[in-house]
Every structure is written in structure tokens, then in C-alpha cells.
Amino acid sequence: MSKWLLRGLVFAALMVIVRLLQGAMINAWETKAGLISAILVALFALVALAWGYVDGRSDARRNPDPERRDDLAMAWLLAGLFAGVVSGLVAWLIGMFYQNLYVEGLINEVTTFAAFTALLVFLSAIIGVALGHWLVDRKRPDEPRRREGDDDRADTDVFAAVREDQTQPVENR
């Protein structure tokens, strides 16, 4: 199973649980609807942040060179989009039978609500990834050294021309 699909399934299920809890809690304490919603969304975001942090730490430990790390941004973006659309669709289906769940129409659920969920998952996870990378990288003594003859990226190295000039002797005028 790919990274983004696993994450997307987990966060889709988690968002459906959050919405079910939200509906039940708001029906029990109607005057606290805003506070309940804010706390549940914050908890959801904290889970994404924590998972992103774990991803960032493990990626930074596995690949000391930042240029060779996995593209976690794309994995988390796809996970967020998948979670948003799937959780919106599932919430809409549950809302057809369970009237205490606050859902809109199908189009709103798979577009507007899905975009909110995708953005929440993506931003929280990427902040966690960046934090994980940073905490691992700051403990390293210095930058990883390039090996001699490591020219696999010579065509994209903008400083390659400068380095070659520095190794040649300077001519007398």
C-alpha cells in the first residue's frame, strides 16, 4: 500500500469519527458548538502534525542529504485530498440515515468540505515534517560531504563552473 493511500484512509476514517462526535456533542451541548468544533478540529490537526513529525524524523535519519529525501509533500497532499473526498462522501452517506450528523449536500461535501480537510491534513503534516527534518538536521555536526567524483548532478549544479576555475592555476600577466 502506498504512503499516501494509507494516510488518506486513516485520516478519512478519523474525520468521519470527528464529525460523528461533533454531531453527538453539539446535540448534547448546543451552546458550546463553536468550542466543540474548534477542539475537535485542533485534535485532528495534532494527529496529522504528529504523523508528519514522525515521517520527517525517519526520512531525515534515513537520508542525511536533504536533496535525496523522499517527496513527503506530495504524499501528504494526496493523502489530504483522498481523506477529504472520501470522508465527505462517507459523511454524506451516513447523514442520509443519521439525522444528528451535520452534513450539507453531496456536492458541498466532496468539494468545499473536502478542500478544508485536505488543507488541514496537508498543512499540519508538512509543518510536522519540517519540524522533524529540522530537529534531526540540527543535531548533525556539519553538512554531509560530497564524495570525489560524485558528478551525478553535475548538469544541475550551478556552482560546478566556479569550482573548476578555482582548481586551475592562475596565469601570470
Automatic annotation (TrEMBL):
Would the keyword Transmembrane helix be found if you checked this record's keyword annotation? yes
The UniProt record lists the keyword Transmembrane: yes
Could you tell me which species this protein originates from? Mycolicibacterium duvalii
What's the protein called, per UniProt? Uncharacterized protein
Q: Which UniProt keywords apply?
A: Membrane, Transmembrane, Transmembrane helix
User: SUPFAM superfamilies, from UniProt?
Assistant: MFS general substrate transporter
Q: What segment(s) does the record annotate as region Disordered?
A: 141-173
Q: Which InterPro entries match?
A: B-4DMT-like, MFS_trans_sf
Residue stretches of biased makeup (Basic and acidic residues):
141-150, 162-173
Transmembrane stretches, by residue range?
33-54, 75-98, 110-136
